[in-house]
Automatic annotation (TrEMBL):
<keyword id="KW-0418">Kinase</keyword>
<dbReference type="GO" id="GO:0004674">
    <property type="term" value="F:protein serine/threonine kinase activity"/>
</dbReference>
<dbReference type="Pfam" id="PF00069">
    <property type="entry name" value="Pkinase"/>
</dbReference>
<keyword id="KW-0547">Nucleotide-binding</keyword>
<dbReference type="InterPro" id="IPR017441">
    <property type="entry name" value="Protein_kinase_ATP_BS"/>
</dbReference>
<keyword id="KW-0808">Transferase</keyword>
<keyword id="KW-0067">ATP-binding</keyword>
<dbReference type="InterPro" id="IPR000719">
    <property type="entry name" value="Prot_kinase_dom"/>
</dbReference>
<dbReference type="InterPro" id="IPR011009">
    <property type="entry name" value="Kinase-like_dom_sf"/>
</dbReference>
<feature type="domain" description="Protein kinase">
    <location>
        <begin position="110"/>
        <end position="240"/>
    </location>
</feature>
<dbReference type="GO" id="GO:0005524">
    <property type="term" value="F:ATP binding"/>
</dbReference>
<feature type="binding site">
    <location>
        <position position="142"/>
    </location>
    <ligand>
        <name>ATP</name>
    </ligand>
</feature>
<protein>
    <submittedName>
        <fullName>Serine-threonine protein kinase</fullName>
    </submittedName>
</protein>
């Protein structure tokens, strides 16, 4: 059902349980609906009621509603992880087991599972590749935010990141798998790293880390950075 409604719905929320997208209501208002889910866990739906009709079907408003829904999904994932003491990716692993979750759409050949976070330039989502017999793997899919996809400097920065990342291979660096473009926005498919983040390590330590442990982590990071900085192009010049 519509578990979160912004505005007076004017419809039976049970009737609207399976609605998706834009719906014109009998009273002249418009209802924008998107489903909320984490892996195979259904969280209900989000609806936004707006006065009047919209040119072009209200596509921009629908994008806004979907973005709000993705942020709610991310917040719920973080809350679920905190309640049982697990990391967000550990919790996502449990939620992404078989049977596979219903698709939240596709970006290129990747099936979107759930959002992980959004930065100033791009959004990172958990996505799934699908191969023969349904085989595939989860990846971290980074895509340029829609309102920046036509900015030449942002696109070039993203292309440079993909070009260099696809050539890197080091145990202390995230692996880049693929690069492409879908619906006018570039994306990068990367390794989805499991494990515990540094914030949780520090919280569990309840104090400063042991010197040897801290130095070892810094050295691992520096080794990855060094591998990236000595990488050369086909002409022998450093990659920039």
């Amino acid at each position: 059902m519509l578990t979160r409604v912004l505005g007076e719905p004017g419809v039976d929320v049970l009737e609207a349980a399976h609605w998706q997208g834009v719906r014109k209501l009998d009273d002249g208002r418009t209802l924008f609906c998107t489903r909320l889910a984490l892996g195979s866990l259904e969280l209900g739906g989000l609806g936004l009621v707006v006065e009047g009709a919209f040119d072009g079907g209200g596509g921009l408003v629908m994008q806004l509603v979907e973005a709000i829904g993705e942020q709610l999904d991310s917040a719920v994932l973080g809350f679920l992880a905190l309640t049982d003491g697990k990391g967000a990716l550990e919790r996502l692993d449990a939620l992404s087991g078989e049977p596979p979750a219903a698709s939240r759409g596709h970006i290129g050949r990747y099936e979107v599972v759930t959002p992980l976070g959004t930065g100033g330039m791009a959004q990172v989502l958990v996505a799934r590749t699908r191969g023969p017999e349904g085989l595939g793997r989860l990846v971290a899919l980074k895509r340029i935010l829609p309102h920046l996809s036509s900015d030449p400097s942002i696109v070039q920065q993203f292309l440079d990141e993909a070009r260099i990342g696809l050539r890197l291979s080091h145990p202390n660096l995230v692996h880049f798998y693929d690069f492409g473009e879908a619906e006018g926005a570039s994306y990068i498919a990367m390794e989805l790293v499991r494990g515990v983040d540094l914030e949780r390590v520090l919280r569990a330590a309840k104090g400063p880390l042991e010197t040897a442990h801290a130095v070892a982590m810094v050295c691992q990071g520096l080794a990855g950075l060094h591998a990236a900085h000595v990488l050369q192009g086909e002409d022998g010049a450093p990659l920039e």
